[in-house]
VTT domain-containing protein (Sphaerotilus microaerophilus), 222 residues
Amino acid sequence: MDLLLSLLDFVLHVDRHLMAFVQAYGPWIYALLFLIIFVETGVVVMPFLPGDSLLFVVGAMCGVGLMDLWLSLGLLFAAAVAGNQSNYTIGRWIGPKVFQWEDSRWFNRRAFNQAHEFYERYGGVTIVIARFMPFVRTFAPFVAGVAQMTRRKFTFFDVTGGALWVGGIVTAGYLFGNIPWVKSNLEKIIWALIVVPGLLAMFGAWRARRKEAQQLAAAQGR
């Protein structure tokens, strides 16, 4: 429980924690940030790390000269791309082992084939959009690997999504993060960065399930 409370405090007050780290350890902040972004995107069991809010606060800190903007952009972009590649590779490694199970309690080949087809057709857009959705961005590359999305296609959209995510949010923090109103409402903004994309993801999943149920009902009624 103490660990969860500490993690929640770090997520909601990431600006204070990063400021304290910069003051105490200086350039080591870049290694810490690289590690956090890599782990959040590269380890499927770590979806709760503060990716969006972290990027925004980094941009704000760059805006007041506490960190270097271009170095931050380059390192965080590299961490985001490498993390997704790691997660995808884990999924690819697990996938062939799962294939051996055929239909069982734990594996449904029909569902797998549908996932593979979906990722080959729409997976690129999914990988890019998932970058901006907490939790979803951690699982999307893993599922792409399990679904055997081709590495070449995945890498293209991984790099594209990583550039848009890191570049967009860090730049937003750089331009707007030090505006007095933004600074005084940063905790609310952080909550919005967590909750709003999550609600959108849940709504999208609900619509997809509803559409699938309607199609199934229509097929059975024929």
User: Anything to note?
Assistant: The chain has a mean pLDDT of 77. The chain has one domain: 2-221. The radius of gyration is 19 Å.
